[in-house]
């Protein structure tokens, strides 16, 4: 199935502030910028129809779409501001949150999962791995037949927010409405696909700092385990070599005795 990828990175980053003097989409993750990593991961999977939805960033090798932001839409504008990219497509279209660190396995799951109509890739609750205390949305995937329903649902959420019926109209509210729940309900539904690893959303500087500490500790432990494993294999090979040498030596002495 052909896919269109929309990397959503047009937000104002108010919660992030001016941490490190750079936007959260450009923080360092293992020696590369966050957005650069996501783009590289998609290209390594052979994906070519990639749009970076952004007001500020330019990256080589991807299409740049500068959205028309409408503050009246509140959080739903995350999706509505790129409507021209998905309203007429005949492909599956995937919204990737641009401030999320995706593990390789997470990106592969999003790319490789065939959906009947739509799916939310998310962590439903807190993470013992990254230490975050609540769930996070990471990506939505829709088939072309969902375009009209998606647009209508988003516009309905905008109206509900304007009428003060709900206090948010972002990813979780969209998910709940599409599942048939009340918009502010948080329940597991049939369209939720769980991702629970080092994939994480960086809303606040503390999210990034906590994640960086934890993944750093994990990588150090992984190095130690590899080193221990290699040492164990080396010891095993030496013991085997010594045993073979001993056997050879014993056969040699046996032969000498027979000759005598």
Number of helices: 7
Q: How much is the radius of gyration in Å?
A: 26 Å
Extract low-pLDDT stretches: 251-260
Q: Helix content range of the residues, please?
A: 40-55%
Question: How does the overall form come out from the CA principal axes?
Answer: globular
* Strand adjacency order, main sheet: 3-2-1-4-7-6-8
CATH superfamily: Spore Coat Polysaccharide Biosynthesis Protein SpsA, Chain A
Distance from first to last alpha carbon: 79 Å
Please identify the structural class as seen in this structure. alpha/beta
Oligomeric nature of the chains: single chain
Characterize the biggest β-sheet.
7 strands, mixed
Average pLDDT figure:
89
Q: Strand share of the residues?
A: 15-25%
How many beta-strand elements? 9
Mind telling me the CATH class?
Answer: Alpha Beta
CATH topology: Spore Coat Polysaccharide Biosynthesis Protein SpsA, Chain A
* CATH architecture type: Alpha-Beta Complex
Number of domains: 1
Q: What is the succession of H and E elements?
A: EHEEHHEEHEEHHEEH
Q: How would the blueprint of this fold be written?
A:
Elements: E1 3-8, H1 34-44, E2 50-53, E3 63-65, H2 77-80, H3 83-86, E4 92-97, E5 100-101, H4 104-112, E6 118-123, E7 136-142, H5 147-162, H6 171-179, E8 192-194, E9 200-201, H7 205-259
Parallel strand pairs: 1-2, 1-4, 2-3, 6-8
Antiparallel strand pairs: 4-7, 5-9, 6-7
Helix pairs in contact: 5-6
């Amino acid at each position: 199935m052909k896919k269109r990828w929309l990397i959503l990175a047009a937000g104002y980053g108010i919660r992030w502030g001016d941490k490190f003097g750079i936007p959260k989409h450009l923080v360092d993750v293992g020696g590369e910028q966050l957005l650069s990593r996501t783009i590289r991961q998609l290209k390594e999977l052979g994906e070519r129809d990639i749009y970076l939805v952004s007001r500020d960033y330019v990256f080589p090798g991807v299409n740049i779409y500068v959205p028309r932001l409408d503050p009246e839409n509140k959080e739903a504008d995350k999706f509505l501001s790129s409507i021209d990219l998905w309203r007429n497509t005949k492909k599956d279209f995937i919204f990737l949150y641009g401030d999320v660190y995706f593990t390789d396995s997470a990106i592969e799951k999003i790319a490789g999962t065939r959906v009947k109509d739509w799916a939310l890739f998310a962590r439903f609750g807190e993470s013992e791995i990254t230490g975050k205390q609540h769930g996070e949305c990471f990506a939505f995937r829709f088939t072309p037949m969902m375009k009209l329903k998606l647009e209508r649902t988003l516009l309905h959420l905008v109206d509900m927010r304007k009428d003060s019926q709900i206090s948010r109209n972002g990813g979780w509210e969209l998910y709940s409405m599409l599942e048939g729940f009340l918009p502010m309900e948080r329940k597991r539904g049939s369209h939720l696909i769980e991702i629970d690893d080092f994939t994480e959303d960086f809303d606040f500087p503390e999210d990034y700092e906590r994640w960086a500490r934890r993944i750093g500790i994990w990588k150090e432990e992984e190095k130690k385990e590899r080193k221990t494993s290699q040492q164990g294999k080396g010891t095993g090979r030496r013991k085997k070599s010594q045993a073979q040498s001993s056997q050879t030596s014993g056969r040699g002495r046996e032969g000498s005795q027979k000759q005598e």
